[in-house]
Amino acid sequence: MKKTIILSLIILAAAGSGFSQSIYSLSYELATPMGDMRNFISKTSFRGLSFSADWYLNSRITVGGTAEWNGFYEKDERHT
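The structure corresponding to this sequence follows.
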């Protein structure tokens, strides 16, 4: 999995130089639970990934989107 991610980053970085009308980014994310979620999970998550893409319509207008994923995990013993 680690090799796949690294290879994907290298390919995106190399391909990005050929796309003068668009911007792509892939980033590693971390997240801290807040609000009501803090009652269930107290640990910060280091399992996150974000992908963003923007396209230039002209010199002043861009259109884009972002997709993010964060996975929270905390082992909890069973309570009866």
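The helical segments are 2-16.
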